[in-house]
Design goal:
Blueprint (H helix, E strand, L loop, with lengths): L8 E5 L23 H12 L4 E5 L9 H10 L12 E3 L4 H14 L3 E6 L5 E7 L13 H4 L16 H20 L7 E5 L19 H17 L7 H28 L2 E5 L5 E2 L11 E3 L7 H10 L10 H12 L1
Parallel strand pairs: 1-2, 3-4, 7-9
Antiparallel strand pairs: 4-5, 5-6, 7-8
Keywords: ATP-binding, Metal-binding, Nucleotide-binding, Ubl conjugation pathway, Zinc
Protein name: Ubiquitin-like modifier-activating enzyme 5
InterPro entries: ThiF/MoeB/HesA, ThiF_NAD_FAD-bd, Ubiquitin-activating_enz
């Protein structure tokens, strides 16, 4: 998805090889069986968009001997410019150890990242934005299996189910949130869940844990707190982007109102808007065209309540109420 959208440079980390079992949920092709996943991905993605630079790294990021190579790739070979860092890291792994490795690297080098996952039953998933010191790190509120140190193989209810639709939906959420973050449009979500069984999409905001067991996370929180004390809301990494977006949206709304006003003036329409921003346009009337007034036909509140109250008492020409007439009709029946 990101390649089709024209992302300039993408780094891919994976040590695994393509298997036929991957065909039901990933974009690999049968003839790529046996290739490393990163080289197969590079081949496919360059066919889709040759302008995107794909850099493959075929090693395990959780291995101690590969740690420095992983960090150097992120911080020195991540950007389009030489010796620059990645703008955003996307974590799409299937184990907690890899997430913890990414979490530590991003905290250490202050790299924003997004984490995604699909549940073991394959019918729910989530995406999460992690900004070092601002939002919770992965260890601030870890899943129970991580907090207890329980081996993954002994987890209760382990299911090897794989549903390509769920994975595609979660991947779409992540790609969309990535574009919003990088291109500064819309609202960047900190957490979005997906429950396929109920079509439920919870969105929540969680604060960083000041007692996080990761000392680097606590240090980043203290640094952010100091910046916030000095700069206020401007200390938030997304503040400037949000401010620019709000200004841009305000200009777009003003332009839309101006366009509507010009159109109304052209046809000799008088628009009376009632609200916080009153707008009244009185344009010269073209010859042979009568002025038209557009107003709200309904107003809520005490006015309507009074009108309904008056309608409950219908008076005849004789001045008698409806109740009096009903009493007379009952008397005639006896």
């Amino acid at each position: 998805m990101l390649t089709r959208c024209g992302i300039s440079k993408i780094l891919i980390f994976d040590y695994d090889k393509v298997e036929l079992a991957n065909m039901n949920r990933l974009f690999y092709r049968p003839e790529q069986k046996g290739m490393t996943k990163v080289l197969a991905a590079k081949q496919t993605l360059e066919d889709i968009n040759p302008d995107t630079e794909i850099v493959p790294y075929a090693f395990s990021i959780t291995s101690t001997e590969n740690w420095q190579d992983f960090v150097d790739a992120l911080t020195k070979n991540g950007g389009v410019q030489p010796n620059s860092s990645v703008d955003l890291l996307l974590c799409c792994v299937d184990n907690f150890q890899a997430r913890l490795t990414v979490n530590y690297a991003c905290l250490l080098h202050n790299i924003p990242w997004m984490e995604s996952g699909v549940a073991e039953n394959a019918v729910s998933g989530h995406i999460q934005l992690l900004l070092p010191g601002v939002t919770p790190c992965y260890e601030c509120c870890p899943p129970l299996v991580v907090a207890t140190g329980m081996p993954e193989a002994k987890r209760e209810g382990v299911c090897a189910a794989s549903l390509p639709t769920t994975m595609g939906i979660v991947a779409g959420f992540m790609a969309q949130n990535t574009l919003k973050y990088l291109l500064n449009f819309g609202t960047v979500s900190e957490y979005v869940g997906y429950d396929a069984m109920r079509d439920h999409f919870p969105s929540i905001t969680i604060k960083a844990n000041p007692e996080c067991r990761n000392e680097t996370c606590v240090q980043r929180q203290q640094e952010y707190a100091a910046r916030r004390a000095a700069m206020g809301d401007a200390a938030h990494p997304l503040h400037q982007a949000n401010k620019q977006r709000e200004e841009r949206e305000a200009k777009e709304r003003a332009a839309a109102r101006a366009k509507a006003t010009a159109s109304a003036a052209e046809w000799g329409i008088v628009i009376e808007a009632r609200g916080k921003e009153d707008l009244a346009v009185h344009a010269p009337q073209p010859e042979g065209v009568e002025a038209v007034s557009v107003e709200y036909a309904y107003s809520s509140g005490a006015g309507n309540a009074a009108e309904h109250a008056q309608e409950e008492f219908v008076m005849t020409d004789g001045g008698e109420s409806l109740e009096a007439l009903m009493a007379k009709m009952k008397a005639l029946q006896h």
